[in-house]
Amino acid sequence: MRILLIMPDAHMHKLRLGPYLRSMREAPLTLTTLAALVPDDPEIEVKIVDGSVDRIPLDDPADLVGISVITGCAPSAYAIARHYRLRGTPVVLGGVHVSVLPGEAIQHADAIVVGRGESAWPQLIQDFRRGRMKRVYREHDLLDDVLAGVPAPRRDLQRNSGYMMPNTVQATRGCRRRCDFCSVNAVWPRYLKRPVADVVRDLRAMPGRIVAFNDVSLVDDEEYARELLTAMIPLKKKWGGLVTADSLQNTGLLDLMVESGCVYLLVGFESGDQATLRGIRKGFNQAAQYKDFVNMLHRRGITIQGCFVFGFDHDDKSVFDSTVDLVQELGIDIPRYSLYTPYPGTPLFQRLMKEQRILSFNWNDYDTMHVVIQPAQMSPEELYTGFKRAYRETFKIRRIAGRVARMDLRCPINFVGNLCYRIFVRRLYSEPRFAAPFSAANPGAPPPAGSWQVPAELEEALCCG
Ligand code: B12
Ligand code: SF4
Question: Is 156 helix (H, G, I), strand (E, B) or coil?
């Protein structure tokens, strides 16, 4: 039996030089994790294809195709599914978007997996081999907050040369915060932790010294974080990850992070305006303390990628210049801008639906690089032009030079990150897909009521049996 696992191309930061294609991001763990969950049987062959670094085959002789779907990739995922189903190959869909809109996804698949795949996916494969694959699989509830028994990802199947950072690992799932625009709580409502010994096993098995954590909120549980970081010290790895600005007020924890090898952190600052932060349920970020926070990380040799968002209700046309200036004043090493995007299932989506302010339901536009909402204090065009201009200003050579001058030569991530975004700015101004705020010719319609749930009769139905 042959299983083909596909992740559609997310069109994000990539470097293409003739036939040479490289993702400027870290390797996702999704497909390698799903491959590791396939029952260990010499009769099952698994192949993974990440569209960000590989061409998606349209003639693979697979017996079963699994596709992972995030919102921005849903239309491509559905097109690939249609292609294989027309060839007679059963298709399973899973991932963030499927978990939030299962009633939509089931229309494009023979079966779907809602939520995590750790127990549902192996069960599905077993049923498929017996000719009894059901249409809907849901993960069994965990009794406590421990996510044990996740096998080490099948990195042997991954094309390591395709990624800027091939070594990725995840220790926790979910987040305890509730920012209004974030999908995480819509999909994983609990904060789960893997046993530290499992994470250390994964880290030991990785070649090289540099590792990226894919956790959205790695050090949120201090006791767990301390146990993990302490166990990492002897491994002598250098690592990067995501944290919230408030979680590092505890300098003891920060020092332990440095001791365990932390060299890079991505932080969601989002806005320099405290009223905005309160409005988006991110009041735990204290804008007045950003400068101290950045200095505290810099003193410890940590490179900071700082994320800011445009399009909040408090944002007027002055927000672009003020944010470019703020990023400069704070000394953010690798700035990143996104647009306020109402992902389905989030409180923001609900609010903007009620206010009739969502302009596009074409999921292709949900990449945080398009305007899909009616902003409160400007037009969609003004928001889009301002967003692009802020990117262009921020990545002018003289500004990059200032940032790179601060770089620790032992850790070139600052230089590489700025170079990637400079290339991205060129794409923003040259690629037709970034020409307009959203796909006005094809904005789609709100998901019909049935999209949010699977029809009861399909919950227990068999696909082909
Ligand atoms: C690595 C990563 C990426 C990678 C790969 C994308 C991907 N498909 O995962 C890249 C760099 C390309 C990326 C890009 C973006 N990303 Co991203 N990314 C992540 C991140 C940090 C880790 C993903 C991961 O490896 N998870 C670990 C694996 C094991 O978990 P998993 O993918 O959820 O898979 C499990 C289940 O969902 C399920 N499952 C998933 N797929 C399938 C398929 C089948 C067949 C089955 C059976 C089961 C199954 O089983 C798995 C095991 O339990 C997540 C946050 C997170 N920690 O999950 C955000 C996340 C997926 N990204 C997100 C976003 C918003 C983006 C961007 C828009 C951001 C940006 N501006 O750069 C772009 C998307 C561009 C576009 N065109 O849409 C959101 C998605 C929201 C949404 N509703 O779609 C997330 C959830 C972060 C967040 N805070 O909300 N991202
Ligand atoms: S802190 Fe980050 S991961 Fe957590 S809810 Fe807010 S945006 Fe999402």
Answer: helix
Q: What are the structure tokens assigned to 417, written together?
A: 């990150």
Q: 79-90 pLDDT, tens per residue? A: 999 999 999 999
How far away, in angstroms, is 7 Cα from ligand 1 center?
10
Q: Which atom of ligand 1 is nearest to the CA of 99?
A: 37
Regarding beta strands 172-173 and 192-193, do their DSSP bridges make them parallel or antiparallel, or are they unpaired?
antiparallel
The CA distance from 2 to 65, in Å, is: 9
Check whether 327 has a pLDDT greater than 60.
yes
* Cβ neighbours, 10 Å, residue 405: 8
DSSP class of residue 271 equals: -
pLDDT in tens, 436-448: 999 988 999 999 9
Ligand 1 site, residue 66, Cβ cutoff 6 A:
yes
pTM here is: 0.96
Residue 23 has pLDDT above 80, yes or no: no
Q: CA quadruple 57, 58, 59, 64: dihedral positive or negative?
A: positive
Edge-to-edge strand list for the sheet holding 45-50 = 45-50, 2-7, 64-68, 91-94, 111-114, 136-138
Res. 251 pLDDT band, cuts 50 70 90: confident
Domains and CATH numbers, the chain: 2-144 (3.40.50.280), 167-434 (3.80.30.20)
